[in-house]
Amino acid sequence: MMGANRAWCVTKRLALSEITCDDGNELFELDADPRVMRYIGTGHVSTREQVDEALRRIPRAYALYPGLGTWRATRRDNGDFVGWFALKYIPGTIEVEVGYRLRFGAWGKGFATEGAAALVRHGFDDLGLYRILGVTHPDNTASQRVLVKAGLADAGWGHYYGRPVRVFACVREAGWQPAWNE
Ligand SMILES: CC(C)(COP(=O)(O)OP(=O)(O)OC[C@H]1O[C@@H](n2cnc3c(N)ncnc32)[C@H](O)[C@@H]1OP(=O)(O)O)[C@@H](O)C(=O)NCCC(=O)NCCS
């Protein structure tokens, strides 16, 4: 089963693995669907050039920011490509956000919540982050619901990526101690 072999992390139903330059076609197909891109950036589908640029940037980030990144998600039962999940700095800020983009055929099965919750846990337990944000288009209610189910709470309006967004946030529990100190 591809994906599971090079999995960086597994959840109950998903395998997350590092993105490589071989993943261009899948990512381009994902970003070519207007239903998927409706609430992303300007709402337009991505060009091949934009996907290729992301493919150069994403693998470099694994070494630059250990523990953070963007991961390709596949189903553990059949290896099907589901989309991607990310835990990464919001450009130009010190905030870390959780994000995800799933193929239309994979929506409505709880996959986004499962992957996002796993990355939030990883961010707090393994990386010791203090706060994790989720930023959404104001009308992206499905994504907002995913963030709430992953443990984030509505934090009102914010301004990221050059536009007004709805911000969700979660801080780690009081009294948190790093497990690696024990
Ligand atoms: C947003 C997205 C990740 C959701 O994926 P998913 O796997 O369907 O999400 P889940 O099944 O885990 O949960 C979706 C929740 O939103 C709810 N939901 C779905 N569509 C909704 C809508 N139009 N309005 C309100 N709630 C909605 C679902 O009922 C579910 O909540 P529930 O479990 O309480 O019933 C997926 O639609 C997607 O990839 N969209 C395109 C990219 C995107 O917008 N990414 C987020 C950028 S901030």
Short description:
This protein has 182 residues and is an alpha+beta fold. 30% of the residues lie in helices and 30% in strands.
What does this structure look like?
It is built from 5 helices and 8 strands. It is an alpha+beta fold and 182 residues long. It has an 8-stranded mixed sheet, sandwiched between helices. The chain has one domain (7-181): 3-Layer(aba) Sandwich (Aminopeptidase). Coenzyme A (COA) binds next to strand 5, helix 4 and helix 5.
Task: List the SSEs and their pairings.
Blueprint: E1 7-10, E2 14-18, H1 24-31, H2 34-37, H3 48-64, E3 69-75, E4 81-89, E5 96-102, H4 111-126, E6 131-136, H5 141-149, E7 153-160, E8 163-171
Parallel strand pairs: 5-6
Antiparallel strand pairs: 1-2, 2-3, 3-4, 4-5, 6-8, 7-8
Bound molecules: coenzyme A.
Output the keywords.
Aminopeptidase; binds coenzyme A; 5 helices; alpha+beta; globular; single chain
